[in-house]
Amino acid sequence: MKTYVATNNPGKLRELKALFAKSPLQIVTPRKHIDLSVVESAPNYRGNALLKAQALAAALRDKHVSAAVLADDSGLEIDALEGRPGVHSARYGGPEMGWPARRAALLAELRGIPPYRRGARFVCALVLVEAHGEPLAVTGEVRGYILESESGTGGFGYDSVFLYPPFGRSFASLSEKEKNAVSHRARAAEAMLAMLSDRRGQPTMI
User: Which of 62, 72, 73, 159 is catalytic?
Assistant: First the structure.
C-alpha cells in the first residue's frame, strides 16, 4: 500500500523507511511542491500527528492522489523538568534555534541535576490515515537518562544527549540497526503493524 509520509525531517523519514521496509506499507515522500508545514497546535503527540496526516491527505486529494498517509509526532520528556520539553521538543528554545544550540540550552538547564533525577523518555505517536476508514493511532516510548554532555555523532535531534541504559550508550552512538531495534519510533511502528494485522487478519513483518 503506497503510503506518503508527512515529514520534512530527513532523519525521521530514513528511520520510517527502514522500519516499514518489510511491511505492507510502501513508504514514499510527496513531491517537493506539496507544502508539509502544519501548525502543531494539539496538546499531545497523537493530536499533532493527526493534524499532519490530515493536512497532507487533503493536499494529495487536491492533486487527485488517493493514498494512505503516515505522520509522526515525537518528543523528549524529562523527569526533572516535569515532562518538558514534550510536544514542544522541536521548538525548545525558540523555533529559530538550531539543533546544536537547542541541545546546549537543554544541557545548561539541567546543569547540576544529579544523575538519578535525569530520567527521561522519548515518545513517538504514529497516525495512519487511509483513503477510507478511521485513522489509526499508536504510541511507542523508550526510557533512558539525559547525559551531562553530548556523546556520539549519529542520529538526529536529541539523540546525542539521550543515554539508553541497556546498551550503555547514547542513541547517537548506536548504529541505525541498533537504534531501529529499540527506539520509541520502532515500538510505535511495531504497534502500528500489529494493529493493521489485527484489522486485516493477515501477518505483517518488521
Answer: 73
